[in-house]
Structures are given as C-alpha cells and as structure tokens.
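Researcher: I'd like a structural prediction for the single chain below. Treat it as a standalone chain; there are no partners to consider.
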Amino acid sequence: MTPEWWHWMIAGIGLVLLELAIPAFFVIWFGLGAIVVALATLAAGGLSLTVQISLWIVASLAMVVLWFRVFKRNRHKTLVGTADGEVIGEVGLLVGAVEPYRNGKVRFQRPVLGADEWVCRAESAIPAGERVRVVAIEGSFVRVTKA
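Model: Treating it as a single chain, here is the predicted structure.
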C-alpha cells in the first residue's frame, strides 16, 4: 500500500500538534517534512513509497539542519562581551558611586545588551550623578570613565 497525500498531511499535522505537547521544538520539523511530502505527492501524484519516505527524511533533516545552522545560531549565546562595537562609547548616568576597588552602578537611557542598569568598574573614583562613558565590557561588568 502506498500512502496517499492526505495520509502524509494528517501525519504532518499530527506531528506539528504533538510539538505543542513536547517542548523540544524538534518534532515540528518532521511534521513539516511530512507536509512537504503530502504537497509533493499531491502535485506529482503516484510517488512510490521509497520516494515518499526518502523525500520525508531529506526534507525533515534539511529543516533540522537549517534550524540549527541558520536560525538557532545565536540562541544560547549571551551578548555580554560580544558587542564591543555597539556598546563602547555609550553614555550613561552613574547611579552608584564607583571607586577603583569598589563597583558602582550605571543606568542607560535605553537598554544596553538587554539591561538598562549595569554594574560598573572604573580606574578612578567617580561620584554618583556623573555621566560616564563605557570603554570596555569585562564579563558581566562594564568599565567606564567620566564622560
């Protein structure tokens, strides 16, 4: 028995709906692969079982590879320390005084790397209320100087 196009469509929709119950975001690609096979079988008609299964495997794996290589590339990476060009030079207001061996706190008008307040370090003492400029990102701290 060779599956009809609607068999693949039902299987695809079932796998996509199964993704709602499984939080892995992995089954959906096999469901979408089945939908691709359903559309190909509907368009071409009379595809053999071997061709249908091969197309399903290729389409599903292509979507998985595409997901991991293109769309999910930066999902788990933190932006801290990677956006030097965008953050260096930002000016903020020092809301907590900073001294050479004591951390302070700087607030920005708009979020910088996902937060509008950052713990900061400086080479010299700067009192609260001063405007400071980011000169470097050091892990979860920003290094600032008086602006």
